[in-house]
Amino acid sequence: MNLSEIRNEYQQQSLDEHSVHGMPLKQLEQWLNEARDAQCPEYTAMTIATSNADGQPSCRIVLLKYVKDDSLYFFTNYRSRKGKDLSINNRVAAHFFWPELERQVKMEGLVHKAAPEISDFYFNSRPHDSQISAVISNQSAEVADRETLEQLWEEESKKWEGKEIERPDYWGGYQIKPTRIEFWQGRPFRLHDRLVYLKSIDGWRIKRLAP
Predict the structure, then answer these.
(1) 1 lies in a domain?
(2) Which member of 34, 58, 96, 163 has the greatest number of CB atoms within 10 A?
């Protein structure tokens, strides 16, 4: 397979400064709704990039769960690699990609742990089996084998038969407050539309970027 010969021509839609919402998260919600309506698979999937004390970047995909209070929320184990990174450096980058719509959104911002009541509310909404997985998983730590992990799950499951599972303090939400959000729409001849929202003390400014 010759990767350099792969070509796709983007021509579905355009992106104009005068047609987008003045608030970037409202524009993001609009694109999320359109991705849902277009039946894009895993349209809430969001790549999160963090870095450790040595500046080593790391990225992974998480699922966006809430957009509110000028923030985006996702949930994870605070002891995971990303959790450890964020405890050292709370600057984060995030990215959405909907190839079916020839669209991307990328953002930069600051992250803080979500309020406990938000983490409790979301944890209590999860399926019982997923709650057990959150309790037993020492995320990102080495595991001897699959059998060990499944045995831990079975033992924990028996403890909570017929009971409500309490959210462990090492699992919860993160709140991303964006300072920069770019919307990308593929266009013909690689003359893509790129609009960036920049946060300032006066609110959000919109600028067009060269493709």
Answers:
(1) no
(2) 96
Q: What is the pTM of this model?
A: 0.93
Give bridge partners of residue 45 from the DSSP assignment: 63
Domain residue limits at 98? 8-209
Residues in CB range of 11: below 8 A, 6 or more apart: 102, 186, 187, 188
Catalytic, out of 190, 194, 205, 208:
190
Number of structural domains the chain divides into: 1
Give yes or no for residue 59 having a pLDDT over 90.
Answer: yes
Which two three-digit tokens encode residue 69?
Answer: 């209070």
Q: What is the mean pLDDT of the chain?
A: 95
CB 117 within 8 A of CB 66: no
The verdict on residue 3 lying in a domain is no
User: Which of 165, 46, 169, 183 is CA-nearest to residue 114?
Assistant: 169
CATH number for the domain harbouring residue 83: 2.30.110.10
Write out the H or E segment, with its range, that includes residue 128. helix 128-136
pLDDT tens digits for range 131-177: 999 999 988 889 899 999 999 999 999 999 989 999 999 999 999 99
Cβ atoms of residues 123 and 172 within 8 Å? yes
Q: Is 190 a catalytic residue?
A: yes
